[in-house]
Write a structure and sequence with these properties.
Helices cover about 35% and strands about 20% of the residues. The strands form two sheets. The chain has a seven-stranded parallel β-sheet with strand order 3-2-1-4-5-6-8, with helices on both faces. Strands 7-9 form a two-stranded antiparallel sheet. About 35% of the residues are buried. With about 240 residues, the protein is an alpha/beta fold. It starts with 5 loop residues before the first strand and ends with a strand. It has a single domain, classed as Rossmann fold (3-Layer(aba) Sandwich). It comes from Leptospira noumeaensis. Pfam families: adh_short (PF00106). InterPro entries: NAD(P)-bd_dom_sf (IPR036291), SDR (IPR050259), SDR_fam (IPR002347). This is SDR family oxidoreductase.
């Protein structure tokens, strides 16, 4: 029996991360998923192992890395976890700013540093799920957008650094995607199905990159719905 490839997906219990994980197990990957609350995930599969870790806490990340069961065999690392608080900058609490910085920048950098030696040995891949917000001026999304711009640049730097070692680095930049990302925001995708992406569509793009390995690399892809429409949530 062929030994499954090992993947690590952050934010794997829901949304885009869960769709990516489901796609990977269908292709025979053993997926280790990181989630702050793994008990909320209803998806089960013999190749899917959800592990608890708060990626906004660097001590928990250190503990996770030390105890990761198959670090030498990992061939795919996907940075997907994220959250956003949108508000005028003076209204963002220090706790919310620190949480976003830790989750969007510190955690991906720490995990990448810890796993890169193995990824080099296994000629693996690193994927970053960015955001179109990181390419645009985003009123009230100032901290979130700036952090996404930062992780975009980190991905581009890694592509240049690691390609000579056979490690493929991809930056995926989705536009409006219908997930619970918007549950704490005052706006959300429009009802028009042509105005938003679905998590499985992001997974399909990644599937094409991973499965159809033709010896060349697509370092960056932006995915957008046909139409641009957002709506304000009704105030209670």
């Amino acid at each position: 029996m062929t030994k499954p490839k090992i993947a690590l997906v952050t934010g794997a219990s829901r949304g885009i991360g869960l769709s990516i994980s489901q796609m990977l197990v269908c292709h025979g990957y053993k997926v280790y998923g990181i989630s702050r609350n793994p008990g909320t995930c209803k998806f089960t599969h013999e190749l899917f192992h959800l592990m608890a870790c708060d990626l906004s806490n660097s001590k928990e990340i250190d503990h996770f890395i030390v105890n990761f069961p198959e670090i030498k065999d990992i061939s795919l690392l996907i940075h997907n976890a994220g959250l956003a608080y949108f508000a005028p900058v003076e209204e963002l609490s220090s706790e919310k700013i620190r949480e976003m910085v830790s989750l969007h920048l510190t955690a991906p950098m720490l995990l990448t540093s810890a796993f890169t030696r193995s990824l080099k040995q296994n000629r693996g891949r690193i994927l970053f799920i960015g955001s179109v917000a990181g390419k645009e001026i985003s009123p009230w999304g100032n901290v979130y957008a700036s952090l996404k711009a930062g992780i975009h640049h980190f991905a581009r730097e890694l592509f240049a650094e690691l390609r000579k070692f056979g490690v493929k680095v991809h930056l995926i930049i989705p536009d409006i995607t219908k997930t619970d990302f918007y549950k704490n925001l005052n706006f959300e995708p429009d009802e028009d199905p042509n105005s938003y992406l679905l998590p499985n569509q992001i997974a399909e793009v990644i599937e094409n990159l991973i499965v159809n390995d033709n010896g060349w690399v697509v370092p960056e892809i932006q995915i957008s719905p046909e139409l641009f429409k957002l709506k304000r949530k009704k105030q209670n």
